Amino acid sequence: MKVKLDDVIEMLEFVNDGMDSSAYYNDKTNKFIYIGEYSDMNEDEKEEIYNNCIGLPTKYYIDEYSMMEEFIKTIEDARLYNQLQIAINGRGAFRRFKDTCIILI
Hints:
By secondary structure, this protein is mainly alpha-helical. It folds into two domains: 5-55, no CATH class; 64-104, no CATH class. The protein has five helices and three strands. A hairpin with a 4-residue loop joins strand 1 (22-26) and strand 2. 7% of the residues are buried.
């Protein structure tokens, strides 16, 4: 099953709006689960979610630079791979990465 990007974005917005909240994706049921700071779930239910679902990151856990690096590792075209590697070095890495993607892809 495919996950809709809009659904992921919506859950990330919920998580990032709450102080003590988290969201998970159950790939077996294709459903998102939101646990707010006042959740009425017991510890066993939460444990089940933690063990069987994929946790969505909060704004505090997202490392955009690492995401760029991981994306670049998936590029098979040597020219594009090298251009993107060069683009992410030094100040302005995010802008250069975006511009390089737009130009080369």
